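quick one: zinc ion bound model?
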Amino acid sequence: MDGASAPVPDDAEAAVPPQQDWAAAAASGRAQRLVVSKDEGAATDVVPGNDVLIPPVLLQSLIDAARAGLPDEACGIVAGDRPAREGGTPTAFYALRNAAESPYRYLVDPEEQLRVTLAIDDADEAVWGIFHSHVASAAEPSATDVGLAQYPDALYLICSLAGDLPVVRAWSIRDGAVLEAAITVGSEVT
Ligand SMILES: [Zn+2]
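yep, here:
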């Protein structure tokens, strides 16, 4: 494990720290908090309990994809047993090509999007989330992101590489309304 003050290099392959390490990193100012306050009543409309559980491996795969996509934005689709809005659990991440090849915007390659959504459908699963990265801005949806959002029942996961440590946040975008969902890093107890 890295020393507490060691910077994380761009090509780091370190696993996502356990949840308590995220909390420690946030407390020390090294990372933004991943678990967001639940005190916004309106946000309970996002997903049941306004809380989404993301397995560490999946979170790491999002961060890896964001880094692999540099200098451009990366994008992909997260499959789940149901859409996030219906309380689904994320099951897989498909990193897809950014057809825009731009550091400022993303366009999921249409052919890859079709192939993956068909595969998800064949597996009796659903589009749980839409992922993309922000290479130099916060992990918040841009006006363009809001305007182009087409999956009201999915969560929009954004990984920012703007800071020393990657930050992943989750958003519901429905009819132009943007609400954040709290991410808890962990796995469901089975
Ligand atoms: Zn964006």
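Residues 16 and 110 are 30 Å apart (CA to CA).
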